[in-house]
Amino acid sequence: MQLPPTQAAVLKAADAQTKRDVTEIAAETDEKPESVTRAAFELEDRDLITVSEHVEVSVELTEEGERYATESLPEIALYEAAVDAGAADDPVALGRLIGDAGLDGDAVDIALANFARKGYGEVDSGEVTVNPAVTSTEDAEMAALDTLVEGGSIEDESILEEIDRRGLVERSERTVRAVTLTDEGITTLMEGIETTETIDRLTPDLLTSGEWEDVEFTDYNVEAEASEKQSGRKHPLRQTADRVKDVLVGMGFQEMQGPTVDADFWIHDCLFMPQDHPARTHWDRFSIENPGKIDDIPSDLVERVETAHHEGVGQDSEGYHSPWDEDFARQLALRGHTTSLTSRHLAGESLGDLEPPQRFFSVEKAYRNDELDETHLLEFYQIEGWVMAEELSVRDLMGTFTEFYEQFGITDLRFKPTYNPYTEPSFELFGRHPETDELIEIGNSGLFRPEMLEPLEVDCDVMAWGLALERLMMLASGAEDIRDVHGTLVDLEFLRTEEVTY
């Protein structure tokens, strides 16, 4: 029988009594594993060998796991320090034990989280008591780390899952294939095989020389399993952002851009937000270690904004009567919203003086010191937008949102009156999640107050909004937790497979 060189080599290397690993044959024949695998499947199609496969799981210690295997788990260190300090008899101050155990940084939280879970004792009101019936020498997780260091395997799946959850090990899987000679294969080897060169592609030289009539072409098994390749693709959030831009440009808006780090003047003071507002403290935003200042703000604009804060604008406005510091206003800050771009454009700092009507938008990143949950991240994308025109009303604002969200298949919008320092009237927007059926907040909006517009020398109405891009994507795709889509806990499988549809 005539066979291509790789098939002949695999057939000769196969054994009728013992399963031979494809990788072993590849090393022995100096062929690539994928070439041997392909040849094995081709031989199996001829009933010369059989191919068997199984999944092999390997477990390796991470850098953190190796460190704990050498030094000991943090909860064990805390337990042993507590025992030495007599916490089995009387409570001992936690602060003392942390120092005795040599714990610092994240190790303290890890120790406390696992100390009670394992029944080592209790931590109450800053004091630690030890359970004398428990001993650290029987810690199953520590024993598992020692086993892996010695090259052994962990039989208890629950222990393996726990140390995997803690990030102490990495588990990987690979498909192992092995070949075995069939009776037909043995007969073929006994009768003898010849190797024949095969051609895997038709070239111009073969055509012009006529050699193509005499050569043997490689057979291709189109049903053979191929290695999986993860190709790059556009992030669903970026897809949503691109779609948002297309929709807003189609609605007659122009895109605006501006600095991520800007003067607090543009971020807050121009929005008629008092300098003692909670949103301007470190509780709501991130601090810059060396903030610096912006000096190129027109002095007459600064004066008008300061007057608005102190005295208000018009007969019905009194301002805040609170301290206002120009140095504080000029300091650089990481923007907590993108409305700073709006204030720059309305003041004429970005494109010069603008005459109504005007429509602008941006899809840019903002940063807030929020508590992480299914709808909040420390950094997020805000869809900023505003319209400058004569005699704008709430109906214009609501109609704009209705038209915009309909482009994404979102028709169940709810509006709730709210308070903003810079808009009156103001409305929060809510949309219904397609999976949970819950109403989630998707944005904030309103008509800018005179106290904001007059210092910027804008003498017509301006309606504006800040919408959440991530929450729009959640409503459009059905994602229930934004952390699965964006951030450090992102679900890579979701990103590889999710199709955003509208």
From TrEMBL:
Name the record gives this protein: Phenylalanine--tRNA ligase alpha subunit
Coiled coil ranges: none
Gene3D superfamilies named among the record's database cross-references: Bira Bifunctional Protein, Domain 2, Winged helix-like DNA-binding domain superfamily/Winged helix DNA-binding domain
GO molecular function: ATP binding; magnesium ion binding; phenylalanine-tRNA ligase activity
Residues the entry annotates as binding L-phenylalanine: 339, 382-384, 422, 448
Species, as recorded: Halovenus rubra
GO process terms (BP): phenylalanyl-tRNA aminoacylation
Enzyme Commission identifier(s): 6.1.1.20
Binding residue positions for Mg(2+): 424
Cofactor(s) named in the record: Mg(2+)
Cofactor: how and how many bound: Binds 2 magnesium ions per tetramer.
GO terms for cellular component: cytoplasm
Cell compartments where the protein resides: Cytoplasm
Family, per entry: Belongs to the class-II aminoacyl-tRNA synthetase family. Phe-tRNA synthetase alpha subunit type 2 subfamily.
HAMAP family with a match to the protein in the record: Phe_tRNA_synth_alpha2 (MF_00282)
Pfam families xrefs: tRNA-synt_2d
Catalytic activity, reaction form: tRNA(Phe) + L-phenylalanine + ATP = L-phenylalanyl-tRNA(Phe) + AMP + diphosphate + H(+)
Keywords, ordered alphabetically: Aminoacyl-tRNA synthetase, ATP-binding, Cytoplasm, Ligase, Magnesium, Metal-binding, Nucleotide-binding, Protein biosynthesis
Domain Aminoacyl-transfer RNA synthetases class-II family profile: 244-475
Record InterPro entries: aa-tRNA-synth_II (IPR006195), aa-tRNA-synth_II/BPL/LPL (IPR045864), Phe-tRNA-synth_IIc_asu (IPR004529), Phe_tRNA_ligase_alpha_bac/arc (IPR022917), Phenylalanyl-tRNA_Synthase (IPR002319), WH-like_DNA-bd_sf (IPR036388), WH_DNA-bd_sf (IPR036390)
